[in-house]
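Appendix B, Record 12. Input sequence as logged:
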Amino acid sequence: MVAERTRKYEAVLILSPEATEDEVSGIVDRIAGWVGERGGELTERDVWGIKRFAYPIKKFMEGNYVLTNFTMAAGSAQELDRYLNSSEDILRSLVVKL
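Logged structural output:
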């Protein structure tokens, strides 16, 4: 059996500006649980707060930015990206390998 390689990733999430601190924390906890179920670990979270957009995204002119760092199996990154894109709570997301 071949062990899958663990890599470090970073994800920037843009959430609704109407989301409260508890809702933002709940969304990040839900993502941490998703990563944990696949053998990964959320190592850092940083809430940047509300920032203004250059153009509207889903009829919003600003969003609540959150930066997360985590480790997980290399093959799970695309799966996480699909999960984030399908979530209605998240306006936009970007997952990159560090």
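The first helix runs from residue 21 to 37.
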